[in-house]
Design brief:
The protein folds into five domains: 107 residues, Ubiquitin-like (UB roll); 71 residues, Roll (Ubiquitin-like (UB roll)), CATH 3.10.20; 139 residues, Nucleotidyltransferase, domain 5 (2-Layer Sandwich), CATH 3.30.420; 156 residues, 2-Layer Sandwich (Nucleotidyltransferase, domain 5); 108 residues, no CATH class. Helices cover 26% and strands 21% of the residues. The longest helix has 25 residues. The termini are far apart.
Length: 679
């Protein structure tokens, strides 16, 4: 029999028994303790550091001895990851094994912080025609000489009052009808698709609600809606708990591959979070869970499969075959969601192996299929989804940007939590930065900034801040066209410091301070790789949409998703995330996937529309396109190696193109200048 040991995680207090030899990271996953792990437990990222605590812990009833944790193995002794070990007592939780009763402290830097969920929705004007309606009926009392069941009486009344022909009903609905009629003879019945009796309550009821959920790889956002009026009664969000199994989608698929119960672990965790979210929404709106009759769900293909309990492993390699690309309807109970017993969940259709139901929902929301001009819709995330087209045709692709935009590959990167730097400006002359952080509307140079942020520890830079700081450093001349931090500028400012063979820029903190935040050369490279992959995917779609004789040009650009919505459009173009476009035509789409989910919740016609549209979307597979690599190489430059930016140059003073060593990428000796504009 396998020996068991007791483990306690602090400061959360989560505890339980695990098998001897279990890694601390696996124990944390099993017990629900949040430990960050970008690499999925491979000993590469260094984000899963913990501090084993030794001694007698009366509070926990444990004596924790040094022998309760394994000695450092080769992974730890040879560790040279991006994030250095925090101290001699820090251990990599993915490598350290539990050998006895143990207390483990998870430092703040290793915790999965509660993210600021920025996924509110603004639903456009639309016709409300939900699949479920409430009908009030007064049902005659039964008589001895008329031996008919109560269900038949309700059917008769629905036909007489509402011209509805109701088919066979399930046992739950029959039971609710009987119980309601025993209480009183006037009842309200819920009917789906005008023919399925779902349930009943005594008396008059005028509120049936539904929940639309965007199941993202990082965050899960839900919206509680009145099915009759379309009013959004509550919005809530939470971190996707699957993060503790891997930061990005492929690490989660790898976890499934490497662990026999991996798929069940991921499915159980996301379903539990979804159920908790529904409970939170109902509590916020003071609505009983039994009034939740409908749910709509969207997510990328991996989230889609894991939520539904389908095998996600085929999505980890070519040909990336989906279990199904059709819309799925399933009882909410099967997903572990407490709602009305007959509540049903509708999952929007997927488009392809890496273009999922969230992209379908974004198309429904933004309606490029109804546009007369060429639209570019981009959902910027760990795996960017791209749609190009208009009413004539639509093309879609995914591009492997990785988690850099969410801070996972950036030395000072973090998610969008209070205290994270989200806005950056760099003085063109002094190269001094000014910042704005989440939780304050003031810039660091404003009077009162210190007092306003006294309770907010500045711990890192979130996605929008990362975009801005790299773009600003390029516009200031600190970063060259080919992405090299110019060390010669150290003569002008102590913000630029030597970093082994390269240089780094101190964004925040005092010179020499242990908690100073830097933008390193490796950080710039990570952003270049991510933005080049996105730009290359976009350009590939434009190539397919147009012809060599008549290249396609995006006439408008919409940046979707929680991250995309908080990127300043000017900086999205300035960094080279997206092609040049009239700046007034580059805008945030908000949580387009969430909006599409709400539309599908409130409209049966919207469901039919998107099911029809996705069948005619042409998927372009970037992995098999030879030109993708060519576009990628060109897009590594900031903003681009060869593309012109006439629209951007009208609002920003763009520096001359120059590469390391002083050779301009455009072959003009770096002499090209553009008008200076204040920003």
């Amino acid at each position: 029999m396998t020996e068991k040991h007791h483990v306690v995680f602090t400061p959360s207090g989560l505890r339980g028994e695990v098998d001897a030899g279990t890694s601390i990271l696996d124990a944390a996953r099993a017990l629900g303790a949040d430990i960050d792990s970008v690499c999925g437990g491979r000993g590469i990222c260094g984000r899963c550091q913990v501090v084993p605590s030794f001694g007698e812990f009366a509070k926990h009833g444990i004596t924790s001895e040094p022998s309760a944790v394994s000695a450092r193995g080769q992974t730890e002794t040879d560790y040279r990851g991006r994030r250095p070990l925090g101290g001699a007592d820090h251990r990599l939780s993915c490598s350290a094994e539990i050998c006895g009763d143990l207390v483990v402290d998870v430092p703040a830097a290793s915790q999965v912080h509660r993210q600021v969920i920025r996924k509110r929705v603004e639903v456009p004007a639309m016709a409300i025609d939900p699949v479920l309606h409430l009908y009030y009926v007064e049902v005659p009392a039964p008589e001895l000489d008329e031996p008919r069941g109560e269900l038949a009486r309700v059917r008769d009344q629905l036909r007489a009052d509402w011209s509805l022909d109701i088919g066979p009903a399930g046992l739950t609905a029959i039971d609710q009808v009987q119980r309601s009629l025993v209480a009183q003879r006037d009842i309200t019945v819920a009917v789906r698709d005008d023919n399925e009796l779902v349930g009943a309550v005594p008396g008059f009821a005028d509120q049936a609600v539904g929940v639309a959920v965007d199941v993202g790889s990082t965050t899960i956002a839900g919206h509680l809606c009145d099915l009759a009026t379309g009013e959004i009664l509550a919005t809530a969000g939470r971190m996707n708990p699957q993060i503790r199994f891997g930061e990005d989608l492929m690490s989660r698929v790898s976890y499934v591959m490497m662990n026999p119960d991996g798929s069940a672990d991921l499915t159980t965790s996301v379903r539990a979070a979804l159920d908790e979210l529904v409970g939170e929404l109902c509590a916020d709106a003071d609505v009983d869970r039994s009034a939740v009759y409908e749910l709509t769900l969207v997510g990328n293909p991996v989230m889609h499969h894991l939520l539904l309990g389908l095998d996600s492993v085929p999505l980890g390699g070519a040909p990336f075959a989906l279990a199904t690309d059709e819309a799925v309807e399933i009882a909410a109970q099967r997903l572990g969601i407490e709602a009305h017993p007959n509540a049903r969940a509708y999952v929007l259709p997927c488009i392809a192996g890496h273009v999922g139901a969230d992209t379908a929902a974004a198309i429904l929301s933004e309606a490029p299929h109804r546009s007369t001009t060429v639209q570019l819709l981009v959902d910027v995330g760990t795996n960017a989804e791209i749609v190009v087209g208009n009413s004539e045709r639509l093309l879609a692709a995914s591009s492997p940007t990785g988690p850099a935009f969410e801070g996972a590959q950036i030395s000072c990167g973090q998610r969008a939590t209070a205290g994270a730097i989200e806005r950056v400006r760099v003085d063109r002359e002094t190269l001094e930065p000014r910042i704005r952080i989440i939780g304050s509307e003031l810039w660091s140079t404003d009077d009162g900034f210190a007092a306003d942020t006294e309770q907010l520890e500045i711990t890192g830079v979130c996605g929008s801040g990362i975009i801005e700081v790299v773009a600003e450093l390029h516009l200031s001349g600190v970063i060259s066209t080919d992405g090299v931090i110019d060390g010669t500028l150290a003569a002008r400012t102590d913000r630029i410091e030597a970093d082994d063979r390269t240089f780094k820029y101190r964004l925040h903190g005092d010179l020499g301070a242990a908690d100073a935040l830097y933008i390193t050369q490796n950080d710039v490279r990570a952003i270049q790789l991510a933005k080049a992959a996105l730009y290359a995917g976009i350009q590939l779609l434009l190539d397919h949409y147009g012809t060599p004789e008549k290249p396609a040009v995006a006439e408008s650009i919409r940046l979707a998703g929680a991250f995309g919505s908080h990127i300043d459009p000017v900086y999205a173009v300035a960094l080279g995330l997206v092609p040049d476009c009239p700046i007034e035509n580059v805008s945030a789409a908000g949580n387009a996937a969430g909006v599409g989910a709400v539309m599908a919740l409130l409209s049966a016609n919207a469901r039919r529309e998107i099911e029809g549209v996705v069948r005619h979307v042409t998927k372009i597979e970037t992995a098999t396109e030879a030109k993708f690599q060519d576009h990628f190489v060109e897009a590594m430059a900031i903003p681009h190696n060869t593309a012109e930016y006439p629209h951007l140059s009208q609002v920003l003073d763009l520096p001359p193109r120059r590469v390391t060593g002083g050779n301009a990428a455009d072959g003009n000796g770096g002499s090209r200048r553009r008008r200076r504009r204040a920003r």
